[in-house]
Structures are given as C-alpha cells and as structure tokens.
Write a structure and sequence with these properties.
Elements: H1 2-19, H2 23-46
Length: 81
C-alpha cells in the first residue's frame, strides 16, 4: 500500500512538471516585468520629457487649438505651392 501512494504522488508531480513552463521562461518573464515596472516608476517620478508638456483635452485645463499645425503662417516661407 505504501508503494501505491509513492507511485501516485510521483505521477502527479511528474504531470505538474510537464505542464509548468520551463524555469528559464519563468525567470525571463519575471525579469521583463521587473524592468517594465522600474521603467514606469522612473518615468513617473521624472515627469514629462519636454517642458510644459501635458495632455490636451477636456478637464485638463489645456485645449487643442482648432487647426493647430495646419496653418502655413505658423512657419514663414512655407506657403502653398
């Protein structure tokens, strides 16, 4: 009877090992998650990349100007040709 218990325990552990991902893949995914988490934290702590850069839209206090970036008078010498 003791031998039967050991055999069933061994078969269950062996099946579990077959279903589990390889340790190298698990380690890589954990490292990837850590790198992204640290990167996000550093980016959040440092703030925007450019001065006065903030999201535009309703509720943010910054509104897009109508036609922004489409007028040729924004850049002298860039008239319609």
């Amino acid at each position: 009877m003791e031998r039967l218990r050991q055999t069933s325990r061994g078969a269950g552990a062996q099946a579990l090992r077959r279903l589990a991902p390889p340790p190298a893949l698990t380690g890589f995914l954990l490292l990837l998650a850590l790198v992204f988490t640290v990167s996000y934290g550093v980016g959040s702590a440092l703030g925007p990349v450019a001065p006065d850069m903030r999201p535009a839209g309703p509720g943010t206090g910054v509104e897009d100007e109508p036609g922004a970036g489409t007028d040729s008078d924004e850049m002298p010498g860039m008239g319609d040709h």
